[in-house]
Structure formats: C-alpha cells, structure tokens
C-alpha cells in the first residue's frame, strides 16, 4: 500500500465510525466529566500553567506533607530543627498510586481543550525514579495519562456527532541532544531536525482511526525508547520522549451523520502503521506534511496539537560511564528548560521582553511554540518522597513555582478556506495547463494535416478561428498567472503570520545550489533564520514559476508558426492548391501583427515613423508659409493704399507725363526656400499655363480699390496714369514674377495675386520704399 497517497477523506473519524474498541469508548463508558463544562474546569487559570505535584508513594518516611492538597512543605521530621519550612502552593498536591484521579486532575481538561482546537502540552518533570513515566504511561493495571488521553479523544469524537476528525500522531525522543523518530524504521530511529518554529523533518506520522490503532503506535514507539537500569531506577528513561497528536476537525455537512457511509475500515485498527506516511515535518501548531483535512463548503478546519512529554529525570553521576554521559545531557537540557522557564516567568511578572534562550537545547527548541504562550500547559512535578532526595525535590518545587508564573495565551487555530482555496487554485492551474497543452497539440495536428493530406480532407483553421484560438490561449495563460499570483499571496500571508518579524538577509535568502538543484540548509541556524530561508526559497520558486508562465504567455502571444498554412514549406506543398487559403493565412498574420501593434502602443514600423515625421515637418512648414503669406498680404494692402493715394495725388498735380520716366524695370523671380521651392514651382507653372488664371485675376480686381482708383484717375483725363504704365508692363511681360526684394520668399498663394496685380513697383528698393507713404 502506498502510504504517501492517503486520502484524508477516507481516514476521517466521527461519531458514527469511531470504533468502540475493547469497550473503553462505548457510549456507556464515556466519562461525563470529559464533556461537562468548559475545558477550563481543571485547567486552572487559562492564562497560567496548571502545575500539580505528585508525591510517589512510599512505605517508609515521607519528607513532605500537604495540609490542604494545594500547599506542600517539609514534614516536621524532615525540616531543619528550629527553622521554618518553606511552603509551596500549587494547583494540586497529589499522592497515591491510582492514575485515574491524577489524569482527571491534571490532564482531562487539556485533552478536551485540544479537541476543542487549542494546543495543549502536558509534561512530567522530576528527579529520576520519582514517577514521571508511571504518571505519563502507567502500566497495564494503572494506565497513565497518555492512554487515558487517547481513550478520551475517541470518546470525545463519539460524543460529538456534528464534527468529523482527522488524527495524526508522531512519537520521538531526544537522546544526547539528538532527536530520533521512534516510529521510523531502523535501530534507534532516524534522526530528525528542527527546521524552525517547531517544524520537524523528517518525521513519520501515523494516521489514527481507532483506539486500538493508537495503542499499537504507542507500544511500538514506547518499545523503541532508550531505557536503562541505573543506580536509582531499574528502568530509567534515558531520553525525553514526546508523543504528539495533531487533531484536525471540521463541522460535518448538512447531511450530518448520514453524509458519509459508515466505514469501519477493519484493517485500519490493526495496522495503523499502514496508514502512516513519512512527512516532511510536524511541529508546534503548524505542520508541513501528512494528509490534511480540507476546509469545505465554508466549513473551517480547526487544527490543534496535543503533546504529552515524559522528560528524563535529573540525576547525579552514576557508577556507569555511559549513564553518566547521558545524565550530563539530561541535566544540561533540564537546566536550560529551567532557565527558559525562569526568563519567561520573569518577563511575565515584570512585563519585560528579555531574550529567552530557547536555542540552547533541543528540548527547549522543541517546546518553544508552546512555551511562548500558544498552548494550554499542564505540568506534573513528581517528587521522590525520600528524605535523602530533599535537595532534588526542593529544586523540583522551585522549578514548578517558576513555571507557574509563566503567562499563556492559547488561541484556537481556525484554518478558514485558505488551504482548500490553495488546493483548488492548484488544481485549476493544472487543468488550465492541460487545456493549453491540448490546444497546442490540436493546432499542431491541424497544421500537420495541411502539409501531409491531400484535397478536400484538409482543413485548416480559418483566420477568424486562429484569432479566436490565440485569444483563448492568452485567456488561459492570463488565468494561470492570476491564480499563481493568488497562491503566492496566500502563501506569503500565511507564512508571514507564523514567522518572527525579522528582515531576511539577502545573502542568506539566496543560498547556493547544491548538486542536483538541492538547496543547502544549515540546520545550526536559529529556527527563525531557517524559517526565513525556507520562505525566501519558496518565494524564489514562485517567482521562477511566474517567469516561466510569463514566457509561456509570450510564446503563445507570438504569431503562430506551427500552422502549416503559414510556413513556406506548406505554401510550396500547396502551390497548386488553395490560393484563397494562402491569402487568408496572410491576412491572419497581418491581423496578428496589427493586434500585437495595438497591444504594444509604443511599437510602429520604421517606415511609418519616417513618414509621420516628414508629414509633421511639412505641416510645420506650411504653417510658417501661411503666416508669412498673411504678413505679406497685409504689407501689400498697405502699399496698395499708399500707392493709390500717391498716384491720385500725382495725377491731380498734372504730373502724369512723368510716368514713363518713373517706369520701373520688371520684377525678377527670387529663389524660394528649398523645402517650399518644388511646390511653389508647380504652382507657378500652373499659373503660367492656365488662361483661366488671368480671368480669375481680373475677377479679383473687379471690385478692388486699385482698379477703382485707376478708373477714377482715367475718368479725370489728366494724362496717362502711372498705374496704366505699370499695368501694361505686366501685360507685356508674362514671365514676370511677383516676388518682392524686401520680402523673400514669396508664398505661392501670393504669387498668383501679385502677378495679377502686375505690381512692378515691387522692385522698389528698401530706400525707395521708405519714400512711399505707408498710408493713403
Ligand atoms: N505513584 C506511584 N505508585 C506506584 N508506583 C510508582 C509510582 N510512581 C512511580 N512508581 C514506581 O517507581 C518506579 C520509578 O518510576 P518511574 O520509572 O516512573 O520514574 P521516572 O521518574 O520515570 O524515572 P526516570 O527519570 O529514571 O525514567 C517504577 O517502578 C514505578 O512503577
């Protein structure tokens, strides 16, 4: 069976499918106290750690006494004579052998809290041989907290018909400052790394669907624990052990218990390991592997962990060298735990934020997420009742007092639809990519047909179809990119929320590649550093994925060359065939080019650019010429008026006979500006060749003041007029141009007008002009 492909929907546990097992979780056997009241009923103050002291029973003298089950102090016989014995207050002072009341007092509320969505941590702390393992695991006659907790987990599920659950568990130990997977294959269990914020990798998880299944897992993992006989304990735990269950749950759908057909899955109870899978990690309130329960139909998923820890006991040096070495590691990690707890308590009491040395041991690194506050914590401090162990017991009591002051703020973790959404996005992306690939294949096949088939069997995509096809492919690519961005955003948000706020070192974010693209990870880095690097790596991957998608989109947007109708070979092959198809194909290509040009407004073919620039230049030149023409027109009008006045005056003085003496030479053509010359030339030629122009000029003069002045002067019969003389000059010299020496170049429109006027006096030099009155 491939355990890596477990469908979480197939391993759900609910009230209908949970197995009664050996009767422990039958409805009649469910402890009402588990379900009654709130989870805080035996969890003490929810903001504080629940701290209980358990004194191991003894047949001889007990050094301690408890007057009211919450206070403990040295028994009169054990206290220093004449010195008042310190009294310590806790939530519970427990004695005796039965584990059931112990469980009820220190663990049941926390188990229920875990089932309700809070992280919960229960651990036993104490000197070697003080009763930690007996309290956590117990024996067949007196099952301890762990088996009782498991029984309650299934009992809780059985009594909660409106929810369905996915349970996963792992079991590890910290031995000589190395973490080993107790459920992993191989002697001693494979080593596990803490990646950051409690994430463990690689760690095997077992999906649990029954009480029998979890018992089998516990037996297997417990069997792998390192124990040895010491001077104090015949079977002493030489490691800290951590049994952890991840509880995921969601409300059942509207169909309730009938939504899913009851499926006892008989093999699951007896072969839990077959339901397990190797996972990249599991830690704290978040994990990175194993089958995950998905939020569905608006139903959020609650995720919580229940951690049950049996610490190794502090001890003095023993007579055995190996045990002494183990003892040193144990003591060191317990000292670190003490110092971490001390700092946390101090911070909480004084509102400080002093650095907490979580990194100083694997144990504290592992416990960091919980000790940082996001867990309900219950501690059972076990005491050796012997008067000879008073020092160690006092030390245990002081540790218990300190942890009592640690502040907690556990919060439920509700996974809304994010994960489900991400999953849906990923699936959609896969579908879209598949559709893209199918379209590409189809296009290729159409092209292939065009090249190889003959006659009417061929069918190419029409130009319209090609355009539609291109658009559809672009749409698909756009959607893929949009979804990819959504995934990136969601992942970033999710990861940022769990990460410590610390800037990512750019050099560390770009770790060197190793071998076949594997990313080197330095496990000695701080958890948050590793986490940052993981995030950076993930982002880098997403960026790369986006780049690939963009390139794919760009490729798709290019004019198709795969279509045979557009390839030269295809054209050759079809030379005797369908010209219409070729024309259509050409047009399709033209449309694609135009679309590309439209999509990229900055693009324009070079020849178009040149034409545009030339047109603009011509328009500017035209505007300048028009302006010049306007000015010349105004000037001419002024001169005409002055001339009319002058001639009138001249004639009235009877000096008309001087007209011949004053005759001016015919005007000469002046060079026009180069850009304007060809056009002016054309117009001059037009004027010179067209008789109608003369008529037009005459028409123009019909009502002109000049003509009126001429007529007036002629009617006065005072000799030939200067105007008549000039008029005849113009008539005699058809080639004469109208340019004015003082106003070059002459606009083409003006030439027509001036020629018509035949204003030979325009040859007046600047000096001469100055003698001409400017106003009539
Ligand atoms: N409450 C108890 N009632 C009866 N027997 C107990 C009790 N607590 C402990 N014992 C017995 O005391 C012995 C030592 O207990 P245990 O192994 O649980 O100690 P420990 O603290 O886990 O020691 P270590 O740290 O060395 O593993 C065991 O034989 C256990 O059965």
From TrEMBL:
Acidic residues: bias regions: 569-578
Keyword Glycoprotein applies: no
Domain of life according to the entry: Eukaryota
InterPro entries to which the protein is assigned, alphabetical: Kinesin-like_fam (IPR027640), Kinesin_motor_CS (IPR019821), Kinesin_motor_dom (IPR001752), Kinesin_motor_dom_sf (IPR036961), P-loop_NTPase (IPR027417)
Region named Disordered: 249-301, 440-470, 494-515, 559-578, 740-776
Example of a GO MF term: microtubule binding
Gly residues composition-biased segments: 445-455
Keywords assigned: ATP-binding, Coiled coil, Microtubule, Motor protein, Nucleotide-binding
Pfam family, one: Kinesin
Biased composition (Basic and acidic residues): 765-776
GO biological process: microtubule-based movement
One cellular-component annotation, GO: microtubule
Ranges where the Kinesin motor domain occurs: 48-406
Annotated ATP binding sites: 126-133
Family label: Belongs to the TRAFAC class myosin-kinesin ATPase superfamily. Kinesin family.
PANTHER family linked: CENTROMERE PROTEIN E, CENTROMERE-ASSOCIATED PROTEIN E
Name of the protein in its database record: Kinesin-like protein
Species, as recorded: Athelia psychrophila
